[in-house]
């Protein structure tokens, strides 16, 4: 048994849960996004070697510290934390998706930096589903108008929504917020944006999976 064998065991267990949940939901496509906030590149590369191709970074500085030592073959790095406008330039050419778009000023900066590099950045709009004053994100009531405003940015590709529910005691309480965000996203996708296909939903953290 190697020092990292527990990763194999944990990955197998979480993939079994994902497969079971996807089957209960009618075969919904689920992507495992491994948040790497508390780990090092040895563990990230080992996880990648097991077939996990999507990782989530919370902090710009940590992403930059990991970057050079990562095995980036088929690796997709997502930025899942709060993103300051002055940090966008450091990650714009490194991440495949930004999950935390929460203002037009941030959208404008992503547009500016993406245009400089001739790329289109996939983004998720962060929804403050619990209407918590101490959390960032767009209120559900403002989400449709905000998404329409994003049409002015040609180097942004709106792919869906992200939300983190308030801290809850029971799983069903989490699901209430997730269902609310899911329905909001589908309504906006179909009625406001008239997009075809299902949007991406990035919802919750490890303990609310």
Short description:
40% of the residues lie in helices and 16% in strands.
Question: Overview of this structure, please?
Answer:
By secondary structure, this protein is of the alpha/beta class. The chain contains 7 helices and 7 strands, in the order H-E-H-E-H-E-H-E-H-E-H-E-H-E. It has helices at 5-24, 41-49, 60-67, 88-91, 104-117, 143-149, 171-192; strands at residues 34-35, 54-57, 76-79, 97-101, 121-126, 156-163, 200-203. It has a 7-stranded parallel sheet. Strand 4, helix 5 and strand 5 form a beta-alpha-beta unit. The longest helix has 22 residues, at 171-192. The mean pLDDT is 90.
β-strand percent reads 15-25%
Give me the count of strands.
7
Shape: globular
Order of secondary-structure elements: HEHEHEHEHEHEHE
Structural class: alpha/beta
* N-to-C span: 28 Å
**Widest beta sheet: strand line-up:** 1-2-3-4-5-6-7
Counting DSSP H or I runs of 4 or more residues, the number of helices is 7
Radius of gyration: 17 Å
Helix content: 40-55%
Main beta sheet: 7 strands, parallel
What is the residue-averaged pLDDT?
Answer: 90
Which blocks of ≥5 consecutive residues have pLDDT under 50?
none
Brief descriptors of the model:
single chain; 209 residues; alpha/beta; seven-stranded parallel sheet; 7 strands; globular
Helices and strands in order, then pairings?
Elements: H1 5-24, E1 34-35, H2 41-49, E2 54-57, H3 60-67, E3 76-79, H4 88-91, E4 97-101, H5 104-117, E5 121-126, H6 143-149, E6 156-163, H7 171-192, E7 200-203
Parallel strand pairs: 1-2, 2-3, 3-4, 4-5, 5-6, 6-7
């Amino acid at each position: 048994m190697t020092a990292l064998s527990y990763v194999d065991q944990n990955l197998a267990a979480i993939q079994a849960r994902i497969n079971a949940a996807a089957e209960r939901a009618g075969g919904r496509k689920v992507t495992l996004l491994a948040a790497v906030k508390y780990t090092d590149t040895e563990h990230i590369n080992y996880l990648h070697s097991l077939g996990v191709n999507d990782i989530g970074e919370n902090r710009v500085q940590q992403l930059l510290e990991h970057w050079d030592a990562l095995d980036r073959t088929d690796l997709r790095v997502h930025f899942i934390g709060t993103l300051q406008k002055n940090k966008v330039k450091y990650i714009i050419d490194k991440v495949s998706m930004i999950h935390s778009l929460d203002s037009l000023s941030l959208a404008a900066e992503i547009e500016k930096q993406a245009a400089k590099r001739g790329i289109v950045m996939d983004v998720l709009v962060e929804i403050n589903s619990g209407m918590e004053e101490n959390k960032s994100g767009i209120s559900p009531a403002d989400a449709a108008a905000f998404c329409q405003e994003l049409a002015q940015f040609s180097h942004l590709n709106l792919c869906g929504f992200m939300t983190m529910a308030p801290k809850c005691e029971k799983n069903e309480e989490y699901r209430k917020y997730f269902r609310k965000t899911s329905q909001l996203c589908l309504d906006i996708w179909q009625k406001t944006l008239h997009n075809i296909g299902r949007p991406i939903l990035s919802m919750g953290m490890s303990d609310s999976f």
